[in-house]
Write a structure and sequence with these properties.
270 residues; alpha/beta; UDP N-Acetylglucosamine Acyltransferase, domain 1; Udp N-acetylglucosamine O-acyltransferase, Domain 2; 11-stranded mixed beta sheet; 9-stranded parallel beta sheet; 28 strands
């Protein structure tokens, strides 16, 4: 049974799944689809061509699918927002739609976005991602599965944060963060492997050890990156996780948030 509070405005063309609960003072637009068992607690605005999956819990004063803030947006452009299943979206979170015709912003499944987090236009956020309070993604940012974005951090447009990586609180990320690493600082630099995050995501001791050794080979030796990449590929030809790191290096457009030389001693002791 669908429950819509009498103080909410839900367009008759909106598609609501079974057992949806729309609390007071919500607004749901005509091109919105909301999955089964999803709850809009109160004062939630869902606009545009927006799809929300099943079993989401959306807290007050959240805005989803709102028009892009990108100045290149042109009125009348049809863009999309896709939010997956089982997400928790806390107070004052904003997730904006894409900018170009037919483009979209994506948030995967099983994510937790804490209060005041912001996902800008054309971002792609993976599954099991945590964005802490006031974490901000610029346009076209890509966040890998199981990544953790610290509170008050800001990630520059077009940057990539890899799978199971962690961005520390109050970081300014202006270059790519490789999978399985921790980045800290202002600007952020990769510091060490995200051992705890990998353990929580189900990686084995052997897999974590491979990633740690690959990281050391890439950045903690006096080698050009190209030569280090070649050595890593030869050393770990069958490692899927190391392959992800190498692919992230080869596809990087903004460059890498390489470790600061002052952090080398810390890494060697890990």
């Amino acid at each position: 049974m669908i429950s819509v509070d009498k103080h909410s405005v839900v367009h008759p063309d909106a598609n609501l799944g079974d057992n949806c609960q729309i609390g007071p003072f919500c607004t749901v637009g005509p091109h919105v689809t909301i999955g089964a068992n999803t709850v809009l607690r109160s004062n939630v605005v869902v606009e545009g061509h927006t799809t929300i999956g099943d079993d989401c819990d959306i807290f007050p004063f959240t805005t989803l699918g709102i028009q892009s803030q990108d100045q290149k947006y042109r009125p009348g452009t049809v863009t999309h927002t896709h939010i997956g299943a089982r997400n928790t979206i806390r107070e004052f979170v904003s997730i904006h739609s894409g900018t170009e015709e037919g483009s979209r912003t994506v948030v995967g499944d099983d994510c937790t976005l804490l209060a005041q987090a912001h996902v800008a236009h054309n971002c792609e956020v993976g599954n099991h991602v945590v964005m802490s309070h006031a974490a901000t993604l610029g346009g076209h940012v890509m966040i890998g599965d199981y990544a953790n974005i610290g509170g008050l951090s800001a990630i520059h447009q077009f940057c990539h944060v890899g799978r199971a990586a962690m961005v520390g609180g109050m970081c300014r990320v202006v270059q790519d963060v490789l999978p399985f690493t921790i980045a800290e600082g202002f600007p952020a630099h990769m510091r060490v492997i995200n051992k705890v995050g990998m353990e929580r995501a189900g990686y084995t001791v052997e897999e974590i050890g491979e990633v740690r050794r690959a990281f050391r080979m890439l950045f903690l030796r006096e080698l050009r990156l190209e030569a280090a990449v070649k050595q890593v590929q030869e050393e770990f030809p069958d490692s899927e996780n190391v392959r992800l790191m190498i692919e992230a290096i080869n596809s990087s457009q903004r460059g890498l948030a390489r470790p600061d030389s002052a952090m080398f001693e810390i890494n060697v002791s890990e």
